[in-house]
Specification:
Elements lengths: L1 H5 L6 H27 L19 H31 L25 H18 L3 H12 L1 H15 L1
Helix pairs in contact: 2-3
Length: about 160
């Protein structure tokens, strides 16, 4: 994409092809190792990054994540190197033209492509459900009211006010 934008030839082509694979490998190492460590109980919010004592069981996975972070850093450096070299030292070349897909024939709007008909269908289907209180929204609100201690306290307080 950069040669199209700048009108310059891509520099360090092999490095540019290697960079996404480095990023994928680094991100996989980093995220999968921390995912596994989290499933095994690694605490998320601790004040120290030292994993000694009771935390030593996650030390190996944290080292793998650190290796993944280093690979991610290398990938980012490759990206910056290729981008900067292309921008500053790339030979001027004719920028390749953008090609757009052209539909073989103009699209014809059919009855089922119109927004209005689907709005009417939605209203016809949803309106009876709203009246019978069988819609998902009403059920969710009712379940929340039955289980919520705040609602029970509020209901008791209003009932006590009505008695007075």
């Amino acid at each position: 994409m950069l040669p199209r934008i700048t009108g310059r030839e891509l520099r360090f082509r092999r490095l540019a092809h290697l960079q996404p694979y480095l990023w994928f490998a680094g991100m996989s190492l980093f995220s999968i190792s921390y995912h596994i460590a989290g499933l095994r109980g690694l605490p998320r919010r601790v004040y120290s990054a030292s994993l000694n004592g009771e935390y030593s069981q996650w030390h190996g996975l944290s080292l793998i994540a650190a290796a993944g972070a280093v690979v991610l850093l290398l990938s980012a450096l490759c990206y910056v190197t290729v981008t900067t070299a292309t921008w500053l030292t790339g030979r001027k070349a004719e920028a390749p033209k953008f090609e757009f897909a052209i539909p073989p024939q103009p699209a014809v709007a059919g009855v089922w492509d119109r927004f209005g008909i689907w709005t009417v269908v939605a209203i016809v289907v949803v309106a009876p459900l709203m009246r019978t209180r069988s819609c998902i929204c009403c059920r969710t609100i009712d379940m929340d009211r039955r289980r919520s201690s705040r609602f029970r306290l509020w209901r008791r307080a209003t009932a006590a006010k009505k008695r007075i």
